[in-house]
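As the next step, I needed to go through one protein, both as residues and as discrete backbone shape codes, included below for the reader:
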Amino acid sequence: MSDLHEQIVRDLITRTEAAVNDVMSVANQTGIVFEENDVVDSVERSLPKGYPTPKDGPEPRRQIIRNIVRDILSGDLYEDDDETPVPDLDDLPDVSIVYLAGGWILPDYSDYAQCGINNRQPDAKCTDTAVWQVVENHGMHQTLTWWCATHLPDKYRPADPTG
């Protein structure tokens, strides 16, 4: 493998790991099942114009990315490592949690926000007022979720219940 081909593959691994995390996060929040091609498409869309295509490998770029996705999801990408990779704390999203006693209105002002448990567990039917807003800043995008007092995940729950 040439140095350029190796550099491209290493860059695609980094980009694909980020895309897997993003797609899995969205899938987790919405309950929508994702496919390999969702991650491949995400990586392809993120590539700058003119991004090189490996010339001396037998596979087209999309297939290389698809193989990387499979290796990430199966853990095979990390099997040769001495230890499981530890996530860089700088890569974790900044989170802000805000309490609003009267409940949160959706950003489009169409209705009150529903409790996030309804999105994460399809059979859940929580009708309590969503009084907590959780904003995760991922750099290029933000994730907003709303929660009632009962279903706010423990990892977001502040020590003081009024925020």
